[in-house]
């Protein structure tokens, strides 16, 4: 957990210090490539894992239920603060 | 949207190659993936740190802008805790770690796979992809039923990149700065929340 926190914080500090250098523009491209590689390997580890392959429908359903819960919860809270703080009067 | 499809395609290619036995398991070295993960987090940090929108947005909206990521976080965790009752085989903390992805499916699924294995990692991948897609597809409905901040909250960590165009279109350009700020804060919080729930 600490190393995760440190990785991201060093990144933020580095990013802030180097924010005016041209090459930070390429970070997002490099990031996409790293993510693609990792997702590919996640796919491989899923395909090798017999348990995941056999339960794919259940896993999909679980994912769907969690999505609905999380998204609806955030929508309701967004509605609340919108009405209380952001909505323009007389609109 | 294009990028999400590409990511999904790469994931699927990995699955198919493994299923057909074309990928040796030796490729999945735990030590390498851990270092790649740290690299990934470092790069995410650079992106957050080099963004210039953070402070400008704070100045313009004051403290009330903090309410938006707060609403997203509270609402998501509340909703996930509630529906976790429907999933008795999954622990509350595992469900929360999936919810804490806030649509940032790549990072959250990779982190969760590292700590809990590919099964929960796949739940996280699918759940958070679905969350992003729900905004891309349902943004007009969200604005109509829940107000202009709705697609921002639902978009979670993606509101500074993939879902920003639909937010601009359906919430209005005056919400762009809020969306950027919100995306950055949630982005930063994803790895922290995910590892927090996994360490409980």
Features:
heterodimer, A: 91 residues, mainly alpha, 2 domains, B: 200 residues, 10 helices
Report on the structure:
The complex is a heterodimer of chains A (91) and B (200). Helices cover 81% and strands 0% of the residues of chain A. Chain A has helices spanning 2-17, 27-48, 50-54, 56-86. Chain A is built from 4 helices and no strands. Chain A starts with a helix and ends in a 5-residue tail after the last helix. Chain A has 91 residues and is mostly helical. Chain A folds into 2 domains: 24-50; 55-91. Chain A is flat and about 50 Å long. Chain B is mainly alpha-helical and 200 residues long. Chain B has one domain. Chain B is built from 10 helices and no strands. In chain B, helix 3 (53-61) packs across helix 10. The longest helix of chain B is centred in the middle third of the chain and has 29 residues, at 118-146. Chain B is globular. The two termini of chain B are 34 Å apart.
Envelope shape of chain A:
flat
Helix percent of chain B reads over 70%
Query: What is the residue-mean pLDDT of chain A, rounded to a whole number?
Result: 86
Helix content of chain A: over 70%
Helix-strand sequence of chain A: HHHH
As an assembly, this protein is: heterodimer
Tell me the greatest interface. Answer: A-B, 71 and 93 residues
Strand content of chain A: under 5%
Topology (SSEs and partners):
The complex is a heterodimer of chains A (91) and B (200).
Chain A: H1 2-17, H2 27-48, H3 50-54, H4 56-86
Chain B: H1 2-19, H2 30-50, H3 53-61, H4 67-83, H5 92-99, H6 105-116, H7 118-146, H8 150-155, H9 164-171, H10 176-199
């Amino acid at each position: 957990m600490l190393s995760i926190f440190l990785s991201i914080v060093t990144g933020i500090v580095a990013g802030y210090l180097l924010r005016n250098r041209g090459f930070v523009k390429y970070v997002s491209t490099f990031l996409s490539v790293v993510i693609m590689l990792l997702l590919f390997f996640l796919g491989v580890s899923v395909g090798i894992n017999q348990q995941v392959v056999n339960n794919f429908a259940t896993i999909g359903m679980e994912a769907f239920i969690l999505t609905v819960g999380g998204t609806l919860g955030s929508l309701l809270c967004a509605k609340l603060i919108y009405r209380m703080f952001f909505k323009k009067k007389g609109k | 949207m294009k990028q999400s499809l590409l990511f999904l395609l790469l994931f699927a290619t990995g699955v198919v190659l493994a299923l057909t036995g074309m990928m040796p398991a030796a490729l999945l070295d735990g030590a390498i993936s851990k270092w790649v993960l740290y690299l990934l987090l470092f790069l995410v940090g650079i992106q957050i740190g080099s963004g210039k929108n953070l402070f400008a947005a704070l100045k313009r909206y004051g403290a009330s802008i903090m309410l938006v990521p707060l609403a997203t976080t509270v609402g998501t965790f509340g909703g996930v805790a509630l529906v976790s009752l429907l999933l008795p085989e999954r622990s509350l903390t595992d469900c929360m770690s999936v919810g804490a992805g806030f649509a940032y499916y790549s990072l959250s699924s990779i982190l969760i796979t590292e700590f809990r294995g590919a099964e929960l990692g796949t739940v996280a991948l699918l759940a958070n992809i679905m969350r992003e897609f729900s905004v891309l597809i349902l943004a007009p409905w969200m604005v109509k039923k829940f107000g202009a901040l709705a697609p921002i909250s639902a978009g979670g960590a993606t509101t500074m990149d993939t879902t920003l165009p639909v937010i601009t279109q359906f919430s209005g350009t005056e919400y762009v700065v809020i969306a950027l700020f919100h995306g950055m804060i949630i982005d930063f919080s994803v790895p922290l929340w995910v590892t927090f729930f996994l360490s409980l």
